[in-house]
């Protein structure tokens, strides 16, 4: 039952064993991770093009993604609002931040580019499918699986060389509390959404375990449950990030924990500049710790829950 879990976690573990001291090599690994994500999402788009009755399937994908996103957001906001009222955490005022995004659209550009990549994959699949047939879709699935193994190894290496010692993580109680609250409320949402999505309880938990890490959740879910559910996971987690860009400036001064936590795993990277810009530098270590913990939890949780079906 756990053979698939072991096969996918092994490259993550092996990558974590590699210590990289060279800044240039670390930058190269970061670029390789980004390139791998784009490549896999392109293959996912091609696989989506191979679905029968594509129009109705895409309609189903959108409906399921909206349903899962709505339930997850409701649970997350309620739990994080409750936590915000109990934490003595306040954002700073009038922060000056270098290299912060100048607009929400600029901050969202990277997220929207991923949607373009998936759409490009669908178009490529529709154009090439009549000529290459099933070979195209089978090759896309196989290549996506091997690039996934490479990506997991690179992610493991990134986590090892992130400069975030375990002691520092465990001592930041606010970051830990935010991460645990977001994780538990997301899993409860996954349980609630599972029957509405015609999924088993463990598949619902897996769908909710992305915590905003849309590139990885789409890949892992799609590999086990097919491109349709991979697309649902992708758009569910991507929409979380897009909403976080809008939500953070609006609520960070009244409900700081909610603003930091809602972005999930992205609070350590993509949404961090927005948190820093509107909440001040005091919010940065809390956001990084919260995002780091959720990034560590997400891959093993998704794979564990999916392995229960085997």
From TrEMBL:
Q: Which organism is it from?
A: Vreelandella sedimenti
List the InterPro entries.
LysO
Q: What is the lineage of its organism?
A: Bacteria, Pseudomonadati, Pseudomonadota, Gammaproteobacteria, Oceanospirillales
Q: Which domain of life is it from?
A: Bacteria
GO CC terms: plasma membrane
Gene Ontology terms for molecular function: L-lysine efflux transmembrane transporter activity
Q: Which residues cross the membrane?
A: 6-23, 35-51, 63-83, 112-131, 143-162, 174-199, 211-235, 242-264, 284-306
Q: Which UniProt keywords apply?
A: Membrane, Transmembrane, Transmembrane helix
Its name, as the record gives it, is Lysine exporter LysO family protein
The record's listing under PANTHER family reads: LYSINE EXPORTER LYSO
Against Pfam families, the record matches this protein to:
Lys_export
Give yes or no: UniProt keyword Nucleus: no
Is Magnesium a UniProt keyword of this protein?
A: no
């Amino acid at each position: 039952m756990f053979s698939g879990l072991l096969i996918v976690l092994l490259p993550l573990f092996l990558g974590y064993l590699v210590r990289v001291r060279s800044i240039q090599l670390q930058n190269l690994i970061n670029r390789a991770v980004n390139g791998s994500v784009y490549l896999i999402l392109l293959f996912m788009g091609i696989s989506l093009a191979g679905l029968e009755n594509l129009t109705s399937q895409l309609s189903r994908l959108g409906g399921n993604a909206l349903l899962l996103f709505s339930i997850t957001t409701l649970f997350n906001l309620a739990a994080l609002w409750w936590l915000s009222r109990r934490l003595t955490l306040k954002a700073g005022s009038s922060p000056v931040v270098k290299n912060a995004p100048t607009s929400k659209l600029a901050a969202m550009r990277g997220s929207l580019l991923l949607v373009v990549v998936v759409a490009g994959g669908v178009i490529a699949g529709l154009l090439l499918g009549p000529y290459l047939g099933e070979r195209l879709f089978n090759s896309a699935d196989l290549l996506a699986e091997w690039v996934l193994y490479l990506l997991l190894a690179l992610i493991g290496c990134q986590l090892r060389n992130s400069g975030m010692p375990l002691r520092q993580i465990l001592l930041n109680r606010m970051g830990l509390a935010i991460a645990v609250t977001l994780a538990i409320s997301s899993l409860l949402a996954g349980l609630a959404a599972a029957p509405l999505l015609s999924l088993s309880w463990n598949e619902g938990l897996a769908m909710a375990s992305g915590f905003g890490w849309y590139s990885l959740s789409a890949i892992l879910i799609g590999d086990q449950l097919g491109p349709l559910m991979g697309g649902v996971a992708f758009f569910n987690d991507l929409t979380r990030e897009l909403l976080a860009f809008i939500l953070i400036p609006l609520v960070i001064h009244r409900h700081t924990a909610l603003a930091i936590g809602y972005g999930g795993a992205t609070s350590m990277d993509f949404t961090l500049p927005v948190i820093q810009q509107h909440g001040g530098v005091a919010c940065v270590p809390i956001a990084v710790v919260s995002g780091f913990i959720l990034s560590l939890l997400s891959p093993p949780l998704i794979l564990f829950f999916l392995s229960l079906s085997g």
